[in-house]
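hey m, so remember when u said the tokens were messed up on ur end? i reran from scratch. heres the input so u can diff it against urs
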Amino acid sequence: MRDDFTFLAVEHVVAIHDELLTRYGGSSTPGHRGELDGVTAAVLAVENAYYDDVFELAAAYAVYIVMGHVFGDGNKRTGSAAALVFLDLNGITLRFRVSSLLARTLELQKRAEARPAPPASELVTWFAGWLRSHVR
């Protein structure tokens, strides 16, 4: 089943990030691990994850980008956009209010930064539930 999905490459995630910075502003400073290393780690984590569900895979992009803080700025925007692009590439369109996605992504960051932080798998399941509930 996983072989049927189209995954995002590192270049796709970087392009999403660059486009969002161009549109909405922000710093292009790399994340603490270096932009390409961080993005590569996030993309590989999704590709190698045990998830078989398209919504969990999409959520994993958001979670791993936000939790990994792979960029110096724009991680929440890029993570949520990567999730949406992944779903779109795999034939799934969502209907939602942008404010709802923003609130969910801000809550994702809050949960990811909690001490102790919940496991990534718990955050993926939680975010995937929101994505699944907004299928058009």
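this time it looks ok to me. The chain has one domain: 2-132. if urs says something different then somethings off w ur setup not the seq
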